[in-house]
Amino acid sequence: MPDALGHLTPDEFREVGHELIEWGARYLESLEEVPVVPSIAPGWLRDQLPPAAPEHPEPWPALLADLDRVILPAIRHWQSPRFMAYFPGNSSPAAVLGELAAAVLGQQGMLWSTSPASTELEQVTCDWLVSLLGLPDAFRHAGGQGGGAIQDGASTSTFVAAVAARHDATGGDPAELPRLRAYASVDAHSSVEKGIRLAGLAPGQLRLVEVDHLRRMRPDALAGAVEADLAQGLRPFLVTSTVGTTSFMAVDPVADIGALAQRHGIWHHVDAAMAGSAGADPALRPLVNDGLVTADSYCFDPHKWLLAGMDCDVLYVADRTKLQAAMSVVPEYLRNAASDSGEVVDFRDWGIPLGRRFRSLKLWFVLRSYGADGLRELVARGHALSLELASRVEAHPKLDLVVPAQLALVCVGHRSGDDGTQRLLDAVNATGAQVTHTRLEGRLVLRVSTGQARTEQRHLDAVWQAIDDSA
Amino acid sequence: MPDALGHLTPDEFREVGHELIEWGARYLESLEEVPVVPSIAPGWLRDQLPPAAPEHPEPWPALLADLDRVILPAIRHWQSPRFMAYFPGNSSPAAVLGELAAAVLGQQGMLWSTSPASTELEQVTCDWLVSLLGLPDAFRHAGGQGGGAIQDGASTSTFVAAVAARHDATGGDPAELPRLRAYASVDAHSSVEKGIRLAGLAPGQLRLVEVDHLRRMRPDALAGAVEADLAQGLRPFLVTSTVGTTSFMAVDPVADIGALAQRHGIWHHVDAAMAGSAGADPALRPLVNDGLVTADSYCFDPHKWLLAGMDCDVLYVADRTKLQAAMSVVPEYLRNAASDSGEVVDFRDWGIPLGRRFRSLKLWFVLRSYGADGLRELVARGHALSLELASRVEAHPKLDLVVPAQLALVCVGHRSGDDGTQRLLDAVNATGAQVTHTRLEGRLVLRVSTGQARTEQRHLDAVWQAIDDSA
After folding, report:
1. Which of A329, A338, B313, B461 gets the most CB atoms within 10 Å of its CB?
2. Which chain B residues contact residue A369 at CB under 8 A?
3. Cβ-contact B75, B69 below 8 angstroms
4. Is A152 at the interface with chain B, CB within 8 A?
């Protein structure tokens, strides 16, 4: 039925919907050719549009035409095979279809009772991911003390973990906050500092721990920092291990860090935003899963390497009661028989928002349409591409492999210095591909991220050609 | 192009996509008949599914068939015209198509440079809403000191406002937290307490201020609480006004509260999650917009009354520099020329997550396909439905209109007491519609929420029939 205004009857929805599916297919077809980075200047899109919404309804052909006229020229093509910037933000046709079905159903899954489908499918898909990736059984809803919940991103999960850790350490007493100290490596993601600040702590309460020559947190340095803080009467409450740092894909020694955290009663959070998906390939599990049994919380982004599309991060906890103790507030108007029975999960208590959309549906589509072996192959391919590129860099007389290539990232520097590296970067980006940069102890580093799902050897060959020509 | 695994070529995407559009149209057609509440017991859906993801890819016909077999029986039909529970979570065909287009494009809008389209369209649509609703000009990106940003829900916006207020009051010093005090009415949404707790404060630091006979916060009681706290050397830092409380749709005296807040240098946040959309009807603006010029931050949910579909809340701030001071952390790997120039907005600094999906696209589709007059009519209809129902309740010898009907909510009690009211509730819900409850000073209250976009007079007539028969 149409809405009460009579806009878009189901037959009109069919008509426009079919046109939009065709538009979407044409967009997918264009990805091979289109340059990743748009050429517009700031303000271009705003200048195309009127200052206010139209007074009267506009016809759908005008809206669809504006997707091409106004939107496409301002798109950074994250789904292009030549997108090798940052980490990938992989969607997939399966995820797109899952988003479509979820949007049609228009669910709001704050409680089991407000969407049994959204709630239970989220439990199921989070449990499926435990098996797919080989994560600890404690992270399961079924039979475990813990469970997983979909969040919008790893930054949010990192903050939620900080809130749970803070509550676990202080019981909610704000007078305890100044004594708290958190720990992460100097290469931890900026969301660790942001999460600490959101939680009410000062940036200085996050100790940035030194790393070894492979950019992994040094457990001895961590132990020293914790002991020094304890000696001063401070309260170490949270240590974040990174599995796959943003700059260099380094993997912290999670087992050692976890053992130290357990010894001192410190909450141990593991941020595996990009690298966690690598567990889909059993060959890579020793690298990315070692020590996870010591984690109180763990997050990774199926929207990065596992094709789920923005936004889809999963936060796992080993003990769900600790998370709920920090997050739950139950007003009268949300009370219901199912929740009171204790038989159901209410995901409102697993994160910040009350309302929640039906994100598990796209995850379910992806997991079923690719199967475990499809996702294993996807991960293995991104890994193989990075090793192949790394071997070329290593063999090149003018280039340095700044750190060993790992998973789906290759870090390159020109031996002549930053100007040379900047020229490499500019040369690659002039081809219509995109790579981005970081710095290693001041040195400019070109990052080539090989986890985009459409990237094939030939796309990487073209990037290598630009690097080689420029070098 | 397909992904590198060859799954779903564009032609296969066309084929499955067209089928899914047909499925979606059939779902929309079913909404007139389907009972809102599913009949399954907890665990039903989980029992339908295997314990792990399939090893090999499953064919699409099996996935689509499972939408009917596994998902639909567990759906609470938020888009049904008989959904009169909570507040509505209105989607619309236009929003569904916007979600589809956004999913195809697979954007990640953390920075202007990572998605100029997502960033600038978010600025444009947030500004359009300022005009549509008649909000203060300070909330505009264009020409204002402030601006709006899409968040996942009002709970998140309420927390983000608390973080900005906390930073404004303390400069980020955690030692100041125990002295902070926040204020909201006893009927404020549970997210106000949750936001306070997430921000590191104890629940007792939120003062719940008394309300008048119409459930509006009493400014004299607020003044008394603030002055008593000041006299004790405490630091009032945040007052939240509610425009349209969840239980009773009461509207706090925002102008008076704002004047008090300004006098004492307290951050003034306005939570208009449901009621804010009413500004689309100029006749209702005096009720919902009065005093908003005193607000430091303001949020409302286009995903409630304004057809945007989960999830879409907009948080406005009057001074964006204060929000960014609280939220911004910039690591090397996110530095870029556009951000460094200061010419662009980077929405990563306007909320919790780093990655952001392209939610403004569906808002743009809704605003253009309905036009300002379509949305005005939508709001006016929900309002008229509530007034009509309220007049029947008032005229009924056995029923009380517990508070005056306002906007799109009618609160009903049976004069015989809670057992009678519970029978009304059960009678309505037995018809296949859904209403929910609240309590007023202990008394059970039936809430009829009339803002679902598909609800027509005949649907409300059927609910009234059940109430009248039961009474």
Report:
1. B313
2. 7-8, 57-58, 60, 63
3. no
4. yes
Check CB contact under 8 Å for A190 and B96. no
Residue type, B227: E
The per-residue pLDDT for range A96-107, each reduced to its tens digit, is: 999 999 999 999
Q: What is the pLDDT of residues B401-438, one digit of tens each?
A: 999 999 999 999 999 999 999 999 999 999 999 999 99
Cβ contacts of A361 on chain B, cutoff 8 Å = 71
Of A124, A178, A371, the CB nearest to B46: A124
The helix/strand/coil state of B162 is helix
Question: What length is written for chain A?
Answer: 471
b vs e for B123-133, b when ≥16 Cβ sit within 10 Å of the residue's Cβ?
Answer: bbbbbbbbebb
Which single residue is written with the structure tokens 């305890």?
A: A176
Q: Does B325 touch chain A (CB under 8 A)?
A: no
Alpha-carbon distances, residue A8 vs A3, A18, B97 (angstroms): 8, 13, 11
Measured distance CA(A342)–CA(A385) in Å, rounded: 48
A-contacting residues in B 168-227 (Cβ below 8 Å): 172-175, 177-178, 180, 189-191, 193-194, 197-203, 205
Q: Do the beta carbons of residue A303 and residue B109 sit within 8 Å?
A: no
**CATH class given for the domain over B100-366:** alpha beta
**pLDDT at residue A260 in the model:** 98
CB B42 within 8 A of CB A344: yes
Give residue-wise pLDDT tens across range B153-173: 999 999 999 999 999 999 999
Q: What secondary structure does DSSP assign to A314-382, as a single string?
A: EEEES-HHHHHHHH----GGG--HHHHHT-S--GGGGSS-SS---THHHHHHHHHHHHHHHHHHHHHHH
B67, B71, B274, best to mutate vs chain A, most A CBs in 10 Å: B71
- Which residues on chain A are in Cβ contact (under 8 Å) with B456? 4
pLDDT of B2 higher than 60: no
Interface check B426 vs A, CB under 8 A: no
- Residue B89 forms contact with A (CB below 8 Å): yes
Top-tier CATH class for A372-470: alpha beta
Give the residue among B152, B150, B154, B156 at the shortest CA–CA distance from B363.
Answer: B150
Task: State the alpha helices, DSSP H only, in B265-359.
Answer: 285-289, 320-327, 337-341
Please report, for chain A, the start and end positions of each structural domain, with discontinuous segments joined by +. Answer: 101-365, 372-470
Q: What is the largest CA-CA distance in chain A?
A: 71
Sign of CA dihedral A347, A350, A355, A361: negative
**For A331, which of B45, B190, B338 is closest by C-beta distance?**
B190
What is the spatial order of strands in the sheet that A206-209 belongs to?
A147-151, A313-317, A297-300, A267-271, A235-242, A180-185, A206-209
Q: Helix, strand, coil % (nearest 5) of chain A?
A: 50, 15, 35
Measure A84 CA to nearest chain B CA, in Å: 12
User: Hey, are the CB atoms on B343 and A43 less than 8 Å from each other?
Assistant: yes
Residue type, A9: T
Q: What is the CATH number of domain A101-365?
A: 3.40.640.10
Report which secondary-structure segment, H or E, holds B270. Answer: strand B267-271
Q: Which of A356, A372, A454 sits opposite B55 (nearest CB)?
A: A372
- Between chains, do B28 and A177 touch, taking CB under 8 Å as contact? no
Say what the pLDDT of residue A329 is.
83
Task: Look up residue B31 and give its two tokens.
Answer: 């909404």
What is the CATH topology of the domain spanning B10-89?
dopa decarboxylase, N-terminal domain (1.20.1340)
User: Would you state the CATH architecture of domain B378-470?
Assistant: Alpha-Beta Complex (3.90)
Shortest distance between the Cα of A313 and any Cα of chain B, in A, equals 10
Averaged confidence pLDDT in chain A: 96
Contacts with B411 (C-beta within 8 Å, 6 or more apart), sequence order = B247, B248, B401, B402, B403, B405, B438, B440, B445, B446, B447, B448
ipTM, 2 dp? 0.97
pTM above 0.90, yes or no: yes
